[in-house]
Amino acid sequence: MDWAGKAIVAKLGLLGQDVVLRGKQGQQTVRAIIDPVESRSENAMETEMQPDGYYPPGSYQYFGPPETDLEGVVSMESLGKTYYIRRTELYSAGGKPLYWWALMIRGGEDRG
Question: How high is the pLDDT of residue 50?
């Protein structure tokens, strides 16, 4: 792993949370970041401002270590919440993997 990959993994260790990955191969715990995806659409910009910490139901994104393959992972759990994967992608630079990204929805959440 090059310096950029090592820097990202170090940041995930400091800023991330424990995330349990569940899939065909069993489960594994990693340090990663899960954040809500904020809408940038024109309709979203015209709505009333919400209090800090509020996000409308929707999608979430995962940023995780490059050595943890998300192929075959179906769901994740963190801080008592379950997320279901819709799409994954391994981001690389110069042919070297930097981090895994996933687009997810939260289990049991009304998508309105």
Answer: 56
